[in-house]
Amino acid sequence: MKAIMVMFDSLNRHFLPNYGNQWVKAPNFRRLADQAVTFDQAWIGSMPCMPARRELHTGRYNFLHRSWGPLEPFDDSAPDLLKNHGIYSHHVTDHQHYFEDGGATYHERYSSWEFARGQEGDPWKGQVGDPTVPDGSINRESPKARQDWVNRGYMRSESAQPQAQTFDAGLEFIQTNASEDHWFLQIETFDPHEPFFTQQAYKDLYPHKYDGPHFDWPPYARVDHPRDQVDHMRYEYAALVSMCDAHLGKILDAMDQHDLWDDTMLIVTTDHGFLLGEHNWWAKVIQPFYNEIARIPFFLWDPRCGRRGVRNDKLVQNIDVPATLLDYFGAPLPPDMQGIPLRDTVATDAPTREAILFGVMGGHVNCTDGHHVYMHPPTDSNQPLNQYTLMPTHMAERMPVNELQDMELADPFSFTKGVRTLKIPVPAESVRLRPESPMPKLLFDLHDDPLQEHPITDEAIEQSMRMHIAHLMVANDAPTEQFERLGLTDELAVVSDST
Question: Does this model's pTM top 0.70?
């Protein structure tokens, strides 16, 4: 048995024909839907990039204990568990965050791995002089933006772009090992993450009038650009989605060519979506996490049951991916893994769970039961808040000394295997939230308002969702002070009394 996972980054499902889009050119995603089960209720867990990837390894939520960071020494990593079970795992990626301080423990969990350089501000090519930048370019003034323009100078053709090189490496692995057994391949591209850089052939799929400055990298902020610039940005993103689609098609071709459908699982998903002007916002980190960010595309082909071309409305998350892979290869699931193997759900539409959580460290704790989405805000102080980790890093740097001066050792959590972690206070001002204060409490009815344009008020539904949050937080062994931060101490008492 074999398995392939194709992982995109920042893929807004509203730009896929599988989820109702009528204008983005993505024929291979349509083709994928004919070959797999399409999930309509797939949701993020922890935001953003590396918190989501920790969940893809461990099968449990990250955001209630820690923000961005590496795998912990006590974490159970699915690729590691597969190796121990005799399954060879190979990771090909152009996602540079794996190789920064905040992600440096992930890639070695695989049997082997390859890295294609040059995405976004990856410090790849050295150039002392200023890079060539289009006149009037709208871009962020930062070292990352400067490095991005240096990198683009080495990507004059599609084959030179990291996405193409990542997929080519995946295809090489398939070609080499198609006749072998017991392997897992993870093909993971940073695209269509910003900046939305691609080749002219994909841009030509979306002809439109635009004579403004160069603009393919949206800020993490409110939309304050003219309508033509907003539309242009959406077309730039669509062009990159079409490039992703073209390379996905090569994987589907390889599945056909090597007769892999009979014995190879295929998972296609993303870590989260991206706002492209919806709700008058760009990007993904600043909350609330609307559907464009939180509700993700998810496709699964399981050769054991052979179901294809159907849709599934059960609640799933990426924490289910490691559980599904371990179950597929007959490897035991560790007791700390909270994801659900999706074998029965794919085969028979078996139910999964009543509700799920999603969020980011220090922000809303969000909950959905598939009908409603409830976004529960912190109290005005957003305190107390602590990080629990043995790997004190941020995205691309170690935590500075001043952040560590008040740390102490915490008691072990249920999943730390008896290990005490560092307990590091997080000041409220360091949490990246929306400018509004206090943060809004929001409830949406997805059946009546799928675009989440009209929040509703219903205390009975809100209380039911708060109880879902409390039960799920307790099950995740969330720090007690999280309930205080969120004003959910009464709900915690009810859950504690019931158990």
Answer: yes
The model's confidence at residue 299, banded by pLDDT at 50, 70 and 90, is very high
Is 408 in contact with 115 (CB distance < 8 Å)? no
DSSP E strand stretches across 349-494: 356-359, 365-368, 372-376, 386-389, 408-409, 422-425, 442-445
What is the phi-psi region of residue 151: left when phi exceeds 0, alpha when psi lies from -120 to 50, beta otherwise?
A: alpha
Both tokens of residue 395? 């995205």
Q: What confidence score (pLDDT) does residue 435 get?
A: 55
The single-letter code of the amino acid at 191 is D
Q: Looking at residue 222, what DSSP letter applies?
A: B
Q: Measured between alpha carbons, how far is 94 from 98 in angstroms, rounded to an integer?
A: 9
SS3 content of the chain, % helix, strand, coil (to 5): 35, 15, 50
42 by DSSP, 3-state: which? strand
Residue with tokens 């540079």: 96
pLDDT digits (tens, 9 = 90+) for 249-268: 999 999 999 999 999 999 99
**Mean predicted confidence (pLDDT) in 420-443:** 82
Angle between helices 27-35 and 227-257 (to 10 degrees): 50
328 to 97, 153, 337: CA distances (angstroms): 28, 43, 15
